[in-house]
Amino acid sequence: MLHQLTWFNMAIHSDSEYAKGTWFKERSLAGPIIFAVADGLVHQADTISELLAQDGYEIYAYLGVDNLKITSPVLFGDTLRADAEVVELRATKNPERFLFIYRNKAYNQRDQQVIEYQTTMMVAKKS
Asked: Which of 19, 30, 61, 66 has its CA 20 to 30 A from that of 39?
C-alpha cells in the first residue's frame, strides 16, 4: 500500500516473480519508504520530543535531511529498529529558536544497518 501511495510501484517492489530474477531474489522496499519507516520509528515513540522536553525544548519545524544513505535492502517481513543520536543543538539568529540535529541509523532483525541520515529540526525553548 505504501508503494502505491508514494508512486514507488516498480516491479522490484510489487512483482514477486520479477523480483526472483534480481540480486535480492525477492521484493524489497523502496528507499523513500525505508526512510519514512526509520524516521517514524524515532518520532512515533516520541523519543525525540521527550528528549527535547527534558531540556525544556519543543519541536517547531522539521527542516531537512542530509547524508541519507540506504546501506542494505529491506525485504518484506524484515523487522526494523532505529537508533538516534544527538549531533548538535545550536542557537540561531532568533534567540527563541535553535537548530537541533540528530543522526539516525536503522537496523534489521539481523543487525544489518539498512539506512543512515542526519535530520535538522528547528526547536524552541518552552515558555
From this structure: 19
Residue 32's pLDDT is 87
pLDDT in tens, 86-98: 999 999 999 999 9
Dihedral sign of CA atoms 37, 43, 48, 52 in order: positive
The pLDDT of residue 8: 67
Question: Does 63 map to a domain?
Answer: yes
CA distances from 48 to 62, 64, 86, 108 (A): 12, 15, 9, 21
Whether 17 maps to a domain, the answer reads no
E strand segments, the chain: 57-70, 81-91, 97-107, 113-125
Residue in this structure with the C-alpha cell 521484493, named with its chain if needed: 27
Cell 543487525 locates to: 111
